[in-house]
Design brief:
four-stranded mixed beta sheet, four-stranded antiparallel beta sheet, 6 helices, alpha+beta, about 190 residues
């Protein structure tokens, strides 16, 4: 699913670039313009639906998904960028005589980006696979044996696993909520330090 989403995002970018550089071509072929707009809107809809289903899938996934600080920033950036693009196209449509179809495409990009900001981004995953704990954090995978974990300390910013003999493994740079901490406690069932 991630590969399909990546391909669709690249096709959307190429289609947008094509629209930017070859808009004069459309004046002689209006049917091509309409077909490209329909294709563009369909692809944007597919990308949004894929993100929605990916978000829904996370609720039934055996992993516990956690937010990092970067996840919060990327979600806020989608809102800001989408809002700027939407307001920019409205101002351009009122103040200039730019092709309305081009402005419509840019407006749809803004709405799509703004809408994608509603789907929470959580990139860190923790899963209990007996007899080990699998952690996918910041692009790296870690496996900790459950019998080597003597305790856990959870704060809003990090999870520290106390390992035997006298070692620690830290999963940092997190932005944990109370519900995330409760999910971690439920899945691990180990002594939690405060």
């Amino acid at each position: 699913m991630a590969i399909i989403k990546k391909i669709l995002n690249e096709l959307l970018a190429l289609l947008t670039i094509f629209n930017l550089f070859y808009f004069d071509l459309f004046s002689s072929m209006p049917d091509l313009e309409l077909n490209l707009i329909i294709l563009f809107l369909a692809m944007m809809g597919i990308v949004i639906l894929m993100e929605y289903f990916e978000f829904k899938k996370r609720n039934s996934d055996p992993f516990v998904y956690l937010r990092t600080n970067n996840d919060q920033y990327s979600q806020i950036t989608r809102f800001i960028f989408g809002g700027l693009v939407i307001s920019g196209t409205i101002v351009c449509s009122l103040m200039t005589d730019i092709n309305i179809n081009f402005l419509f495409l840019v407006f749809v990009i803004g709405i799509s980006t703004f809408t994608r900001g509603f789907f929470p981004v959580k990139t860190t995953k923790i899963k209990l696979v007996n007899p080990a704990l699998v952690i996918d954090h910041l692009g790296k995978n870690y496996t900790l044996k459950m019998n080597s974990i003597s305790g856990i300390k959870i704060t809003e910013n990090e999870i520290v696993f106390n390992l035997e003999p006298n070692q620690k493994h830290t999963v940092g740079f997190l932005a944990l909520s109370e519900t995330d901490i409760i999910k971690i406690k439920d899945i691990l069932k180990l002594p939690i330090e405060k």
